[in-house]
Write the structure tokens for this entry.
Amino acid sequence: SCLLRAVGAALKFSCEHANRIFADRLRHANARLPSDDRCTLGKRPTRERASVSRRAATFTRASELSMVGVGTKLPDLLLFEGQPEFAKATEYSLAELTKGKTVVIFAVPGAFTPGCSKSHLPSFIAGFDALTAAGVELVICTATNDPYVMEAWGREAGVKPGTILMLSDKSAALCRALGVASEADPMVRSDRYALIAKDGVVTAWLPAAMPDGEKKSENTYCPAVLAAL
């Protein structure tokens, strides 16, 4: 009986602890939504209200993305290029890389993922010569994977040396600075986007996420960048 009482007490504690965590997370989520769309403990939202809440959350995210636009100055931070044979990664200052140049940066959620490997990166491999002919002096691909994964992905995808610079945003500093980080365990990922910058200032911002919540990956591919030059 003592054992049963101990187990019962442990279960009660676990449930109370889980409820506290859930309540804290609910309060955090509610803070991002209009008061009419907020949920309360013990009250299940209607289907219509849940739909509105999802749209409101999506709009909030899209609004954050729209803070990056023409005239935004790129942050001064470090990105990393993996080297063959596991040599030490090379550090690059983004400010120094982009200073005085016309630069294209495109970000992908993850190396070796289907859409990024089949469409996004290949579009820039195929269109690299067209970009340089249009006056682009540097093309950067970035993701939050570590530098060695980025190097291996570029090599596997057929990125030729001296063309696209495959840089790791391993601490998610860039995507967080631009407001396009998807915070999740076990790793933070960047939302998909492309941008054009001249002398470190954004002149074209091309996110995949639309204000209505729809995602159009093709808006971030090389043809869309060429059209924006």
Observations:
- Confidence is low (pLDDT under 50) at residues 10-15, 28-66.
- The two ends are 76 Å apart (CA to CA).
